[in-house]
Amino acid sequence: MSYVLHRNLTAELPAIVSGDGNYLIDETGRRYLDACGGAAVSCLGHDNPKVRAAIKEQVDKIAFAHTGLFTNQPAETLAEFLVKHAPKGTGDGRVMYLGSGSEAMEAALKLARQYYLERGEPARSKVIARMPSYHGNTLGALATGGHTGRRAPFQPLLMDVSHIDAAYAYRMQKDGESEAQFALRAANLLEERILELGKDEVMAFVAEPIVGASLGTQPAPKGYFKRIREICDTYGVLLIADEVMSGMGRTGTLFALEHEGICADITTMAKGLGAGYQPIAAVLASEKVISQMQAGSGTLWNGHTYMSHAIATAGALAVQQVIENDNLLANVQERGAQLETALISAFDTHENVGNIRGRGLFWSIEFVADRTTKKPFPPARAIAPRLKTDMLARGIITYPSQGCIDGTNGDHMLLAPSYTSTVEEIELIVSELTQAVAHVLET
Ligand code: PMP
């Protein structure tokens, strides 16, 4: 009998007791290869000695002192690292630490609102985001996200956020339309929406550089974010990049937006920041935002008790040092290329695989009932959840999701293996997935 309130109120879940590299081990000694890192969290496996040592060392120094009065060394060193490694154009930004991706998204929205109040533009309060997308489960983050299933029960509680279509190439790009044309058309939806809502009333545009949980690792078409940046600059709208899932090396660069050659005004990050060793998230505000606040009230109008927690920041600092010192971004690129090739070779001509997409060690497969019409499977066939169960029976943890835009898109399987993945582990993941797909599609 479990007294913990799990997502499933009736299931008896195995208890995890330890980690061994990229494997989790349960109380019966069963081993699971973690091919998704929870939800793209565990990017250094589950027993990294340097991260564990850094956390233990910090426990023996100091855990908590209120950030209203004090700072601490790991928080400062990590913030400097994040600012200095942020996409060019961020300038002398500042970092705020929080406990989860959702909290970081809430804080980012409040920061944007503060920025406009400090500028003397109180009419700016409207937020534009994308459909589909996922920005978290607290009310502000849920309202911002475009995940219809997760929003539906709480709709009456959600603030009004306007959604434009995400640049979902597989289903949105028209026949004969080039990538550049599609990128422009998809980005220009933002301009149209700003003009509809009132160009002096829009505060922020929120987007994941690579859509994660709602859609399955959808990168933007080339040129999309350049045009988005231009539109935001033209209308004075802040660009908030949600790098909670895509950030901290997952796509082969520290921030996924680096790949697009632009920088955001506010960036959130979480999962790969602490790699699961500590619960931690961060908001990086660019110099543009910070200088406005410095020239104005000189204060931050937001606060949480555990901001800048020294054990959490010490853990995350060690994670970032391991990624840098062990040159793990190179491994993300190499193992990512291996994963891409293996997925394409296993599934590219499969009659029920509509699309394979991703970047770095962040890949997804979208399954369809019919490749020609792109018709999804009926939700009742539960392809993605059954695949997850089948893979788990094979000792591999994967991340499934089912259509989140009113049944118009289908089942996905998301893979986000650790940055420390070996050649053999990637081979094993794809060979077991090939068998699991064949098995699940039989029924
Ligand atoms: N933003 C994105 C892009 C996410 O993928 C998630 C979590 N899947 C969140 C925000 C919310 O993070 P958390 O679950 O830590 O609150």
UniProtKB/TrEMBL annotation:
Pfam families on file: Aminotran_3
Family matches, as CDD domains: OAT_like
Membrane among keywords: no
Database matches in InterPro entries: Aminotrans_3, Aminotrans_3_PPA_site, PyrdxlP-dep_Trfase, PyrdxlP-dep_Trfase_major, PyrdxlP-dep_Trfase_small
Coiled-coil stretches: none
Record's protein name: Adenosylmethionine-8-amino-7-oxononanoate aminotransferase
Record key words, sorted: Aminotransferase, Pyridoxal phosphate, Transferase
Family label: Belongs to the class-III pyridoxal-phosphate-dependent aminotransferase family.
Cofactor(s), names only, from the UniProt record: pyridoxal 5'-phosphate
Organism annotation: Epibacterium ulvae
Gene3D superfamilies reported in the protein's UniProt record: Aspartate Aminotransferase, domain 1, Type I PLP-dependent aspartate aminotransferase-like (Major domain)
